[in-house]
Every structure is written in structure tokens, then in C-alpha cells.
Amino acid sequence: MTDRHRLSRRQLALPLIVLAQWCGTSLWFSINGVAASLHQDLGLAEAALGQLTLAVQLGFIVGTLTIATTGLADRYRASRLFFAASLIGAGLNLAFIEYADHPVMALVLRFLTGVSLAGIYPLGMKLVIGWTPNNTGAALAWLVGMLTLGTAMPHLLRGATLGLPWAWTLGLSSLLAVAGGFAVRGLGDGPHLPASSKRVRLGEGLAAFGLKRFRGIAGGYFGHCWELYAFWLLVPFLVAREVTRLQAAPAWVPWLSFAVIAVGALGAILAGRLSRRFGSRRLAIWALATSGGLCLVYPLLGGLPPWLLLALLLVWGFSVIADSAQFSSLAADSAPRERIGATLAVMNAIGFALTLPGIWLGSALWADAGLSVLWLLLPGPVLGLWAMRGVTDTAAFSASSSATPR
User: Residue 196 above 80 pLDDT?
Assistant: First the structure.
């Protein structure tokens, strides 16, 4: 391989990985993008949609812990695992079309889709380290941004296929995942990939919680997790309420839902840039306080003009994910170096487990409680900010710190 070829691959690596991440994570909320059609065609209620979303979250937790504790990511090339997970996830997403009206099989398929996502998002982190070891901190913000766009993508696909059956939306998201998998497979692993490490022992990861600073950062991250996915689940319901009040065409719902979630990509990337000037701790607190404030006041503002509430949703979508990469960087900087793998695996497992109550409560109570259900998201930001009250930035922090998935 010529020097020019090597340089070209390195220049293309980060854009290619983040785009592949965007394509692969479109599987995450693919069902939520067609929720209205599933309700109309199959009678799927909000609570059932919440159960399917919970299944994905549980699958991701199980998949992440399996990869971490078995050392799977060290025994096989990250690009090949990413490729396999993308193809498997795409196939499971397509299989849902056939079994959408079979409740048990639908839940199993979404659970397994979550497992496959554990081979896409975390492995994307490892690929970035292998190709851009000196820009990991900045790349992390881009990866979180692409995860956000991937989450929003099904709403965009549904908006573009409103005249077609909902299966087209799932088919397109599967096609994107396959394309992302092939792109990473062609790129391969980078030349700077860290040496293989021993298997993670999850018990070792609990030791970091004895450190006051790490405990505070983890608490902030847990509060962020409580709010984030529940908010993303509720976005189409919140948008539909205002579209109805505007007496606008229902076709606006997926487009506006995409905008509210996708604007978070800008939040994540901008926060990554500003953190170099203001510090990750300050950015994380600002973002968590903003989204938490909206949790508090939004239900009280339900009578305001619909266009104003839609604008507030855009602010919420921007801030709700802006703190993600900052918490990750702070945690990675504070974890014991000899136990960083176990520490971050445990932190992520707890964080994603804490997404489950908000998703379940939000989907189950929306039909009866309406906007008041948003107050159930409020404990996350409040407790997260309380946990962060004693955390300070340290001189040891580096923008190139390795970090953990959102």
C-alpha cells in the first residue's frame, strides 16, 4: 500500500465510521418511526410501543455486557464484528415486518435487534480509537451526533414514504445498516488499535464508585440516561399534539419529529467544541439544567401557541443529548486506568438500565396523563445535577481522553 493510499484512508476513516454509525443506529428506533401506522394497521397502542422500545434497550444492555465480559471484541477484528452486527440487525429489522402482529415474536426480534446494536455503537468507538488516536475526544462528539441522527432517521424515512406501506420505512433502515456495515468492512481496523486486554470482570468496575469524583460524574450520567430515551420515545406524541392543534396535515408529524431529535446532533457536536474552552463539566451541567428545566415547565405551558411549543421541543432536543459526550469524557478521565474497561462497562450497564423506567412509564401513562407524564422525566436531571454539585474540572482532563458510549 502506498503512503498516499494510507494517508487517504486515514483522512476518510472518521467520516466513514461516523456515517456508518448513523446508518447502523437507524435500526434503534425504526419501529417508533412508524408508530402511527402500526397503531392504525395493527392496533398497536402507546404501551405496546413502549414494550418494544424496552426490548431493544434490554437487548443492548445484554449485548454490551456480553461483548465486554467475554472479550469478544479483543478476539475478533472490530470492523468484522461491526459488519456482522449490521447485517444481522438489518435482517432482524426486516423480520419484524413479518411478525409485527405476533406480540411475543415481535418482542424477541426487537430484543435481538438491541443485541446486534451492541456490535455497532460500542465497536464504532473502538474503530475511532484505531484510526484517530489523537482526536478521540472530538470524534466522540461526532459519534454521539451520528447516534442521534440514526435515532431520528426512521422519522425522516417515514416522512419520505408516507404514501407507501410502513414496511418500506423498515426496509430502508435495514438497507442503510447494510451499507454502513459494508463501508466499515472495506475500511478495516486502524493501525493504532489498542492491544487486546484481559476479560472484563464487572465486579472490578464497582471499585470506581468509591471515588467521590467518579461517583458524582456517574450520578450525572445516570440522571441523563433516565431522561434521554424516554424523551425520544415521547417526541412523536408531543409533536402530534401540536400538529393537531395547528390543524395541520398529519404528514408533518414525522418530519417535525425528525427535526426535534436530529437537532441533538448539533448539540452534541457544538458541546464537544465548546468543551475545549469551558470544560466538559460546565457544558454537561448547562445541558442537563436546560433539559431538566424544560421537563419542569413544559407541562405548565400546554396552552401556549403550538408553534412556540414546537420551538421549545427543538431546544429540548438540542440540549437533551449535548451532555452525553461530556459525561463520557469526564468518566473516562476519572476512572482508575487499570480498571477502566470494567468501570465503564458497569457504568453503561447501569445507565441503560435506568432508561427502562422512563420509557415504560412514559408510554404507559401518555394516553391518560398527557403532558403531565413529562414530570416523570424530571427526577433524572434533578438528581443528576445534585450528584454533580461537588465535581470539578481537573487539569488532568484531556480532549483526547478515551470514552464510553452514550
Answer: no
